[in-house]
Design goal:
heterodimer, A: alpha/beta, Rossmann fold, 2 domains, 9-stranded mixed β-sheet, 11 helices, 43% helix, B: mainly alpha, ABC transporter involved in vitamin B12 uptake, BtuC, 14 helices, 2 strands, globular, signal (chain A), Sugar ABC transporter substrate-binding protein (chain A)
Chain lengths: 346, 338
């Protein structure tokens, strides 16, 4: 009798949880009037423009009569400019700001002020490190798994043993730092015991600085085998530097790159392998998330599942890299090499 | 020794002092960085300084007239992008057409600065601070978030800067470096030998006196900005050829680096004196310090900028103190001989 009761209870629980899950997949109602701002790190970089394309696509699909603005600071003014645009958006009463954060935690006061004014803050690409002032983060990939992927690419390029160095963007880009930290963590595994990470340098996402830093790395570490650059500007500059100085046999370049920009270096062996995700999709998913949160259809709570148009269902979960913060994980990413880079470059 | 020092002209003395500082820095780093002194180092510095040499030369021309051009980095970036975009769309354009385009475009930007500074009498630091942001924003608009990529550029353009013209052992003299050096020397000869070019110094050391002796100082300042713009344009062309990838951040920060190179090179920030050869050595010194610091284990990433700043300050101070001492000695000896 007792066991039967338990069984009944269990099955009731099971059933309720199943029906609970099904009822909770929210389909966003289109046509809500919400003004939104897409705020990239700075203007003029191809990947951010692609994200905007994706957001505009979602904007049309959801028939939002409001405005979708694509505004960002100029490159030399990125941190201050982001804070300023955030502040302005709050006073304008924008429904949501979609932010690729380049200002570290410096953005927090203005983001909190915007939230207090009723603006929802959805981050994408690069989150607010402390998670304060942020409703939810749309992560392109799992930050931990990108570390493993980079470690694996280094492993295959080095044939299992050798020296590698990282060429990053700026020292305060939170996504870069999280990926590098994840890679360091991955490198602790037994598989990578013979791989030594010798240095991390910063090229500020400027081609000329990255180019010189890459050469300096080669000069500083004569046995260097791989330069890992988790930024589309850095990877390209490093590959060109190795090509110009005839060092491609000795040092391979890898990291995150755009197929169109990396094509020649992949085919000539300077950068045989690299990875990336689709920024258009990232913009699209971010828009759906922000639209849902700003229209009140999503509460922005852990466990909520919703349908993001053509991309399917996504669930809000706790961000494992930033306890207490929430994220939506997009994934996956593609590894490019000489077999698939040409098709992707078109 | 002292007698010799008093006979050499002060500009030459300054260059010699700079070379001494350069050698000291070289010696210092060769002691703390393994595998330092070799042909490779020469190749690194010479390839990287080619672009800065042209920018610093332009900056020096402006500084000599008591002005400053903070927009020069934005001009380099814009020209690099625009030249890249025109050659991407018209791959048949030859070197002459492209270089002309780059220099004219740069001169156009220089003319905007020049008109406002010379004829509307707005201080150059304010004008060029504004145009620095303005030109950069125009680039952001113009670029439409695209970037120039190496794969769309003709082969001759990409291979040009690294073409080895001749070499001694591992030291390679590459085309971009040789072009830059030739231009610096030509400008130097003009500045020291041509009557017209000397007007830059006259206007810089005393604008009122310049007007009184019938020099059109407005025109001189205007021309200085145009020349700086066209040199920045040429630098933009080399920038495109060297890096291949041009985004809207191209050339960011070059304005301050060029001012640093000029000042380290002994160009008086208050106008009236200085040489472009000095600026060239200044540019090489800044580059040498910057590159060597990256290789020096002792200095971490976050301290490098600070250490670079300190070294620049030290070399400028050492130069100033040394020059004052020498001038004092010269005066003294003049007094004795009279």
């Amino acid at each position: 009798m007792k066991s039967l009761k338990l069984l009944g209870l269990a099955s009731a629980l099971l059933m309720s949880s199943v029906s609970f899950g099904a009822a909770d997949t929210i389909t966003l109602e289109s046509g809500k009037d919400i003004n939104m701002v897409l705020l990239p790190k700075f203007l003029g970089i191809l990947v951010f423009d692609q994200a905007n394309d994706g957001a505009q696509e979602a904007h049309k699909e959801l028939k939002n009569p409001g405005e979708l603005l694509f505004v960002g600071p100029t490159p030399e003014n990125s941190v201050a400019g982001q804070i300023e645009i955030m502040t302005t958006s709050a006073t304008q009463g924008q429904g949501a700001v979609m932010l690729s954060n380049n200002a570290g935690d410096q953005i927090v006061p203005s983001a909190k002020a915007a939230q207090a004014a009723g603006t929802k803050i959805v981050t994408w690409d690069s989150p607010i490190p402390s998670g304060e002032g942020e409703d939810v983060f749309v992560a392109q990939v799992d930050f931990g798994s990108i570390g493993t992927v980079m470690a694996d690419m280094a492993h295959s390029l080095l044939d299992g043993s050798g020296q590698m160095a990282v060429l990053s963007a700026t020292p305060d880009a939170s996504n870069q730092n999280a990926w590098i930290a994840a890679m360091k963590e991955a490198l602790k595994g037994d598989k990578y015991a013979k791989i030594e990470l010798v240095d991390v340098v910063y090229g500020n996402d400027q081609a000329e600085v990255s180019y010189n830093r890459a050469l300096a790395l080669v000069d500083k570490y004569p046995d260097l085998g791989v330069i890992m650059s988790p930024t589309t500007v850095g990877i390209q500059a490093a590959a060109k530097a190795m090509q110009d100085e005839g060092l491609c046999d000795q040092v391979k370049v890898s990291g995150l790159g755009l197929p169109a920009e990396m094509l020649s270096y992949t085919l000539n062996g300077c950068a045989p392998e690299f990875t990336l995700w689709d920024f258009r999709d990232l913009g699209y998913l971010t828009y759906y998330t922000a639209y849902g949160v700003a229209s009140g259809q999503l509460k922005g709570e852990i466990g909520e599942t919703f349908t993001a148009g053509r991309m399917g269902d996504y669930t809000i979960e706790e961000d494992p890299g930033r306890p207490g913060s929430k994220r939506i994980l997009m994934g996956p990413f593609t590894i490019y090499n000489k077999d698939n880079v040409e098709a992707a470059a078109k | 020794m002292v007698a010799l020092l008093t006979k050499i002209n002060p500009q030459l003395l300054r260059i010699l002092a700079l070379l001494l500082v350069f050698l000291t820095v070289l010696l210092f780093f060769s002691l703390v960085v393994p595998n330092y002194l070799n042909g490779r180092l020469f190749n690194r510095i010479s390839s990287s300084v080619a672009i800065m040499a042209l920018i610093a030369t332009g900056q020096t021309l402006v500084i000599i007239t008591r002005n400053i051009d903070l927009s020069i980095g934005s001009i380099v970036g814009f020209v690099a992008f625009a030249t890249g975009s025109i050659v991407t769309n018209n791959p048949d354009l030859g070197p002459v057409a492209l270089v002309t385009y780059a220099m004219l475009l740069g001169a156009g930007f220089g003319a905007i600065n020049g008109v406002i500074v010379a004829y509307l009498k707005v201080p150059s630091i304010i004008v060029t601070l504004a145009t620095m942001a303005l030109f950069r924003s125009v680039l952001v608009e113009y670029s439409n978030a695209k970037s120039i990529t190496t794969s769309n550029l003709p082969d001759w353009l990409i291979s040009f800067p690294n073409t080895v013209l001749w070499h001694f052992g591992n030291m390679q003299f590459r085309a971009a470096f040789v072009v830059a050096i030739v231009i610096v020397i030509v400008v130097h000869i003009c500045l020291s030998r041509l009557r017209v070019a000397r007007k830059l110094y006259v206007v810089g050391s005393n604008p009122e006196a310049a007007e009184m002796v019938g020099i059109n100082s407005k025109l001189v300042v205007f021309v200085a900005f145009i020349l700086a713009g066209s040199l920045a344009g040429l630098a933009g062309f080399l920038f495109l050829a060297r890096f291949g990838t041009i985004t809207v951040v191209a050339g960011l920060g070059l304005e301050l680096k060029s001012v640093a190179a000029s000042v380290v090179g002994g160009v008086n920030i208050f106008g009236g004196s200085g040489t472009v050869i000095g600026a060239l050595i200044g540019a090489m010194l800044v580059d040498l310090i910057d590159m060597s610091l990256v290789r020096w284990q002792f200095v971490s990433e976050f301290w490098r900028e600070a250490v670079l700043g300190i070294l620049i300050l030290l070399s400028v101070t050492a130069d100033a103190v040394l020059m004052r001492k020498l001038t004092a000695i010269r005066q003294k000896r003049k007094g004795v001989s009279e």
